[in-house]
Amino acid sequence: MPVEFVVRDGKVYKTTDGKTYTEHIPMGVNVRASGYGSALWQPDRDISSMVKTWGYNTARLSLISDSYSGAQGHNDKFEWTGGATNLRDLKELVKRFLDAGMEAVQLCPRLNGSNGAGVDLSPGNAAVKKLKAFWKHWANVYKNDQRVWFNIVNEPKAGGTALRDAYKEIIKEIRDTGAKNVIVLDSMNWGQDQSSPGEPTFPTKSSWICNYAQDIVKSYDNVVFALHFYGSGWRPTNDGKKSVEELRSMTKKKVLEGLNAYLALDNPKVSFHVGEYNVNDMENTGAEKSGDDFNQEKEAAMTAGIVDACIEKQIGTIPWSWSNLGGDDSGPINSGSGGDIKLDKDKPTNLNRLGKIMWADVKRPQPKLHTFTSPGGEIPITPEVKSTSIPIAPVTLDSLITRVLDLEQRVANLESKAK
User: Fold this and answer.
1) Fewer CB within 10 A of the end CB, N or C, for the chain?
2) 19-29, pLDDT tens digit by residue?
3) Where are the domains of the chain?
4) pTM score, whole prediction
5) For the chain, how big is the Rg over CA atoms in Å?
6) Half-sphere exposure of residue 309, counting CA atoms within 13 Å on the CB side?
7) Backbone φ, ψ for residue 106 (5° rounding)
8) Domain 26-366+389-394 classified CATH 3.30.2350.10?
9) CB–CB of 273/26 below 8 Å?
10) How many whole angstroms separate alpha carbon 282 and alpha carbon 279?
């Protein structure tokens, strides 16, 4: 039978036979797929690198809606160039990812042009009408292939009941086609999920997920939520006098507070992952951005704190992004893509500050996965939990680097003895 994904008890499970279900933790990367012009990546080479070299199981395809032909933005054809290859068919691009072994491909339209963020959704407004038409088309295309996930829209702005009800309206359009594919919902405030940025602690009262996600989950199956971790919401303080070590620790603490709040949601539980993070956007705009108190080292430290927390709680992540435009550290390698990685005995030698964090993140130790078996193909409310690997203690990026160095030394010792 074809691959199926189901969301139960706050986790995503994957099955190939309808009986044995294994937890799927999204570990992936954002890909500039449509509307970016020359995106500095080459599909034939880079898709293989994502799967085999980096080990990603998920690709989130960013699709700028203005690049679509057709008044409603749901035509198969779109304008995209990448390296020496021009792809004009989104279905062909998705097929290349799946054929290369990518377990899941998320499609994510970006409204508001090249920025593609901050769109206001409310029931029946123009943006919702466009998204309903877009997803009705693609739901019919992919309703028989659940490896394709539907990320409704990139980074909506406002939240509250308006966003909840707009999402429900679009989800209904998808489900009415018969599609059971996983649906991903970015939270409010550009995915930050809070309306009180800059606070030293996580403001649970203003969290859209904490207040509205369960209502959606009660209404529709196979829905997960995505967080975007940037400075406008997750930076722990406005005090630029803090040291690198303090900022990393404070960021981890705030992120853990948020993750724990989401994990504590019950009846029903809520599934979520990190849909974006990056080093460049950890500084707020304003005085601190132009001053000397904040710098690249501190931005990277805060991003490392985010990843520290996600590793500790075994939360999946999808960093922004695979390719770099203009040397701005929005990709793992300056002026190129992750496919340009150079390895020395499996150790990367040309990663920038974001790339080093991305590599340590995706190469985290195998987490404890959950499985359950349903002989009749029906999914129990409370699945039997089994470990597919030895449980691991929480780890940090520093400990990962130490482990890698230790393994390299062991290999060197063995090679020396062999001589």
Assistant:
1) C
2) 999 999 999 99
3) 26-366+389-394
4) 0.85
5) 21
6) 23
7) -95, 130
8) no
9) yes
10) 6
